Amino acid sequence: MDLGLRGRWALVCAASKGLGKGCARALVAEGVNVVITARGAEVLQATAAELRALNPAVQVRTVVGDIATPDNRAAALAACPQVDILVNNAGGPPPGDFRDWTRDDWIKAVDANMLTPIELIKATVDGMAERGFGRVVNITSGAVKAPIDVLGLSNGARSGLTGFVAGAARQAKLASRNVTLNNLLPGVFDTDRIRATTRAQAAKAGKSEDEIVAARLASVPARRLGTADEFGAMCAFLCSAHASYITGQNILMDGGAYPGTF
C-alpha cells in the first residue's frame, strides 16, 4: 500500500532509538524527509546514517538536545522546512514510589510528557491546516488505560496530554482541514524503557528481572514483546493519506494485554 507520504516532512522527537526510531524508519521508508532529535549526539548521528542508507532519496536532518527545552524545540522546528507530520515522543520519567516524589519531580514529568508535546502541537497545527494536510502522533503509554503503580509520574503526565488531545483533535478548524491528532499507546515493547521499568519492578518485588518479564508476558496473549518496527508501521499508517478519518483516538498496541472491552 502506498501511504501517500512521499516528499512530506516529519519532525520525529526522541528518535535515536526505541519506538521513536521505529517511527522514523517507517516514515523514511515511505519517502518522508525527517528531522530527528535526541539528547545523545553519537547515537543520533548513527541513527541518521542508518536512515539515509535505508532511503537515499530522502533528507535526514538531526537536532541534538532535549526537546523539553524551549531552545531545542525552536531548533528542531527551524530545521524542518515545514512540519507535515509531528511525532511527539520523550523519555518517560523514572519509576518509583509516589511517596518519594517531590514537586520538582512532578513538574519535570509534566513538562516533558505533557507540556512539550502541547507546545509542539501549538507551533505546527495551524500551518498544517493552512496547507490542508497534517498528522500528529503522540507516543504515550498503555499505562494511560491500565496504570502501572511504579509509573505514577508517567501515568499522570501522559493522561493530561491524552485529555488535551481529545479536545484539540475535535476542533473543526483542524479536523475539517485534514489535520488529525492521535495517540499511540505502547504496551510491553523491547526497548530500553521497558528494561528500566523491569529493573525497578524487580527491585521492589525482590525478584529477578527474568521473573518480572515472564510474569508480564504471561498476561500478554501474544506472549512476546512488541518490536519497534511494528510500532513504526502503525505510526506511518496513522500519518498516511488513508487515515484522514481517524482523529482524537488512542490506539493501544499491547499484544492484547488490556482486558477491557473499551
List keywords for this structure.
262 residues, alpha/beta, seven-stranded parallel sheet, 9 helices, globular
Question: What would your notes on this structure say?
Answer:
- With 262 residues, the chain is α/β, with parallel strands linked by helices.
- Helix content is 46%, strand content 14%.
- The chain contains 9 helices and 7 strands, in the order βαβαβαβαβααβαααβ.
- Strands 3-2-1-4-5-6-7 form a 7-stranded parallel beta sheet, with helices on both faces.
- β2 (33-38), α2 and β3 form a beta-alpha-beta unit.
- α1 (18-29) packs parallel to α2 and α7 (192-205) packs across α8.
- 44% of the residues are buried.
- The mean pLDDT is 95.
Give a brief rundown of this model:
By secondary structure, the protein is α/β, with parallel strands linked by helices.
The helix-and-strand class reads alpha/beta
Count helical runs: 9
Tell me how many strands there are: 7
Give the overall pLDDT as a whole number.
Answer: 95
Largest sheet: 7 strands, parallel
- What does the radius of gyration come to? 18 Å
Unreliable spans: none
The backbone outline, from C-alpha atoms, is: globular
Give the termini separation. Answer: 29 Å
Across the major sheet, the strand order is 3-2-1-4-5-6-7
Helix share, percent: 40-55%
Query: Could you give the order of the helices and strands?
Result: EHEHEHEHEHHEHHHE
Strand content: 5-15%
Secondary structure: elements and pairs:
Layout: E1 9-12, H1 18-29, E2 33-38, H2 41-54, E3 60-64, H3 70-79, E4 85-88, H4 103-131, E5 134-139, H5 152-168, H6 172-175, E6 179-186, H7 192-205, H8 209-218, H9 228-238, E7 250-253
Parallel strand pairs: 1-2, 1-4, 2-3, 4-5, 5-6, 6-7
